[in-house]
Design goal:
The complex is a heterodimer of chains A (754) and B (49). By secondary structure, chain A is of the alpha+beta class. Chain A is built from 26 helices and 27 strands. By secondary structure, chain B is mainly alpha-helical. In chain B, 0% of the residues are buried. The chains are: A alpha+beta (754), B mainly alpha (49).
């Protein structure tokens, strides 16, 4: 059996994964309404009569999806190229003809069941990628030059001018210069530019002594080579660049991914909506929706704006906003929220708020504000640099002046001053943080934990207060069968019915039954339940009212129950509850044993929140909170001097996540929330939260050790340099040695189990 | 020491070949989609004829 959607093996089921099943269902819906889109406007002419489109693809799950999209597009005769980048989730395709053709082509992809978004302002992404590329190029060139210079330098070090001949020595010096000078000019640019930029602002950073050391060392060496001197420092200068560029590159990579979140976030809001006008149905961009417009929202489509339902009755999936997986039944007059998913039937909605004022946009706006407030964290490496640079400059200047006063010629004094700069240059310091970070994030990735921002580890290490969201974070976010009144036979019949349906409660019921199913002809009544005919009796499985049970609405379980009726008489009922994650209790006691405050912050009712809190032994609970209140709650904790870790999965948690010092979300969370969180963890368990905190503590202590090593090495090396004992060989050995020690120390992170 | 006149250019030249090869891979976008590439080799190319 192969997957109906992507064609990969599916072990007998219709689809290989939930994503494909959903995509297939969505494809049908979307195909039915024939959306005309607005992609043509984004098409970019690439040459005469040819255009290119770049779009974000949402809903890709497996490599088969990539294949499917590419093959579908390439099948068109006018397509020149189509390529999906799985890392960035971008589709780029080009075609010959008119820009309007882009709509038709994009539609083919939409019909396959993927959502396409305008990538919006891609300038920042491009910029990031360009920086990374330029750094890689610079590393390659510096590495090439450093290796070749070493080749020559070993020859120089292993003999003297007398044995190898002065002409040969000068020859070696000049070849070194020939290799080193272009390298310095090219690979040094990231440092020179950054140093120039801060100097213009009358500040200083680590790049200033680096640039100074590299430039002075190169100039010094040229003049030494010209006057036939004994030593040149080209190899030191280039090696310095090589090591520092590696650190810089690792750093850029760690940070790079985090920046994509904002642009993706806004792309959610892009798209079009079907507006009902006198002349029929028009599709207009969501951005241009105004209050009072009437919209048609088909089943399977996202509701594009806040409004009220005017016609129709449906189930709405609010999980984007609240993290609640149970669909909400909504009829005429009910309010709808932008971004929620219309599940079962088409509805007509009257817009009450233009899209910029919708709850979704407000949350986005709140997050931006919160993020700006949280951005003040100063990284450890930067703090070290701000202490380090003045010391280095003063020492170097003092060496120069000191030797001059001692009566040395200025060239020799300058040479000593430059060696101070080279030897103190923060190779080890520059590598101390990035190497540990990259190793730590690799280790976390193996355990299904994804670090999204470079300094998240540093920030999470100091956390003394953890705030959890309830639904989907402490709980699994999926209902599970929990009591009721039924016999084993009832369960068998109910499960046989339920396994035919995709409704969350049906899925839960079918999963809780292990045994043989009865083969029944089942029909589904949308919004109500399932019905079948068994031994001449009509059996119904569904809502309380539909199964004939009157009144007596359960206090809290009204939505989370299923009834089974035989010939219209209620026979049995099943109750469901959102189960706690398996290790939630263990996790809480572990946290409390470490003297970390634990808070529960829920949008749910007080009674539900308190019960969960009691089960887990959490004392600080806030229930029935809005997204803004959640955000305020976090800010209050921060004002009390706490370092707050927020763990949440709903869109309503997103502003709180952004406001917290550091944030985590499970991978089951909605995209926006995952993008906001600093760390995303996979799986059913909650332990990754604690694991990450422990690993962060370890890696932070390693970073500190690395700093200590780097400083210790300097205390030893600086006096040598100041008094002029450092030859190029000692400089090279010290530099590689200290870098190696720091890297090896970082690798200790790998050896211990978390 | 005349041998140096051959050896040094050869050494640098070999290094240069490696460097240029790397820069070419970088420029042709072979590092752009590191997640997708390992999956792509699992599929046969369907030559459009």
């Amino acid at each position: 059996m192969t997957c109906k959607h992507c064609g990969s093996a599916s072990n007998g089921a219709d689809f290989c994964c939930d994503g494909c099943a959903a995509a297939h269902a969505a494809a049908k819906e979307i195909g039915a309404i024939g959306a005309t889109n607005i992609y043509a406007a984004l098409a970019r002419p690439i040459e005469e009569g040819a255009f290119q489109l770049e779009l974000i693809v949402e809903g890709m799950h497996c490599a088969a999806c990539v294949r499917l999209i590419e093959n579908a597009l390439v099948a068109n005769d006018d397509i020149m190229s189509a390529r999906v980048n799985m890392t960035t989730e971008r589709l780029t395709f080009s075609w010959r003809g008119t820009p309007e053709r882009g709509d038709a082509l994009a539609e083919q992809v939409i019909k396959l069941g993927y959502k396409l978004h305008d990538p919006g302002d891609s300038a920042t992404d491009d910029h990031n990628q360009n920086t990374e590329r330029r750094l890689l190029k610079a590393i390659a060139i510096a590495g090439f030059a450093a290796a070749n210079l070493m080749l020559l330098s070993v020859g120089l070090w292993s003999s003297t001018g007398e044995t190898m001949g002065f002409a040969t020595r000068d020859f070696f010096h000049w070849i070194s210069a020939l290799i080193a000078l272009p390298t310095v000019a090219y690979s040094g640019q990231p440092f020179f530019q950054s140093a120039y930029a801060v100097l213009k602002e009358r500040h200083t950073n680590m790049d200033v002594p680096i640039s100074l050391a590299v430039i002075l060392a190169s100039l010094m060496s040229v003049s030494e080579a010209a006057r036939g001197g004994e030593y040149v420092y080209f190899d030191s200068a280039v090696m310095l660049l090589f090591f520092l560029l590696i650190g810089r590159y690792l750093d850029a990579r760690a940070k790079g991914k985090a920046r994509e979140s904002a642009s993706r976030l806004l792309s959610k809001l892009a798209g079009s909506a079907a507006v009902i006008t006198d002349g029929g149905i028009n599709r207009i961009p969501i951005k241009e929706l105004k209050a009072g417009m009437r919209l048609l929202v088909t089943a399977g489509e996202n509701i594009p704006a806040d409004g009220t339902i005017q016609k129709g009755e449906t189930d709405i999936d609010l999980s984007l906003i609240s993290g609640e997986t149970m669909p909400n039944h909504a009829g005429v007059g009910a309010a709808t929220l932008a971004g929620t998913l219309n599940l079962t039937a088409p509805i007509e909605v009257v817009v009450t708020k233009a899209s910029e004022q919708s709850l979704l946009s407000e949350i986005v706006h709140m997050m931006e504000t919160a993020e700006q407030g949280a951005a003040k964290y100063v990284r450890l490496a930067d703090r070290a640099a701000s202490l380090y640079t003045p010391v280095v400059h003063i020492l170097s200047a003092a060496t120069f002046v000191g030797w001059l006063l001692w009566g040395m010629p200025w060239q020799a004094s300058l040479l000593n001053a430059v060696t101070v700069l080279i030897i103190t240059c923060p190779c080890a310091l520059g590598l101390a943080v990035p190497v540990v970070q990259v190793l730590a994030s690799g280790k976390l990735l193996k355990n299904g934990i994804l670090l999204k921002s470079g300094d998240a580890l540093e920030r999470i290490a100091g956390v003394d207060c953890v705030v959890f969201d309830k639904t989907g974070t402490l709980t699994v976010g999926k209902p599970a069968l929990e009591g009721g009144s039924y016999s084993p036979d009832d369960l068998k019949i109910a499960a046989s019915l339920a396994h035919r349906s995709q409704h969350p409660l049906s899925v839960a019921l079918a999963q809780s039954y292990e045994g043989e199913l009865i083969d029944l002809g089942v029909s589904e009544v949308p919004g109500r339940g399932l019905t079948t005919n068994l031994n001449g009796k009509i059996i119904k499985l569904g809502s309380r009212r539909w199964c004939g049970q009157q009144g007596g609405k359960g206090e809290q379980s009204s939505a989370l129950e299923l009834w089974l009726s035989v010939d219209g008489v209620p026979h049995a009922h099943f109750c469901f509850a959102d189960a706690l994650r398996p290790d939630a209790a263990q996790m809480m006691s572990a946290l409390q044993a470490k003297n970390i405050d634990v808070h529960l912050l829920s949008g749910d009712r007080q009674s539900v929140a308190s019960r969960i809190a009691e089960d887990l032994g959490i004392h600080m609970v806030a229930a029935e909170t809005s997204p803004l209140e959640k955000c305020d709650y976090i800010n209050r904790l921060k004002q009390e001097g706490k370092t707050v870790l927020m763990v949440g999965d709903g869109l309503n948690d997103a502003p709180a996540l952004a406001a917290a010092n550091v944030s985590m979300s499970p991978s089951s969370a909605v995209d926006i929330t995952q993008n906001t969180a600093d760390i995303v963890f996979q799986g059913e368990k909650l332990m990754p939260v604690l694991d990450t905190m422990l690993l962060a503590k370890r890696s932070n202590s390693l970073v500190r050790q690395n700093f200590a090593l780097a400083i210790g090495y300097n205390i030893f090396a600086i006096p040598l340099a100041v008094f002029g004992f450092v030859t190029p060989m000692i400089a090279a050995a010290a530099m590689s040695g200290s870098s190696l020690v720091v890297i090896l120390n970082a690798f200790r992170l790998r050896m211990k189990q978390v | 020491m005349d041998i140096l006149l051959y050896l040094i250019p050869i050494a640098i030249g070999l290094g240069l070949i490696g460097l240029l090869a790397f820069l070419w891979t970088l420029k042709s976008g072979q590092y752009d989609d590191l997640d997708g590439a390992p999956h792509r080799i699992l599929y046969d190319d369907e030559e459009d004829d």
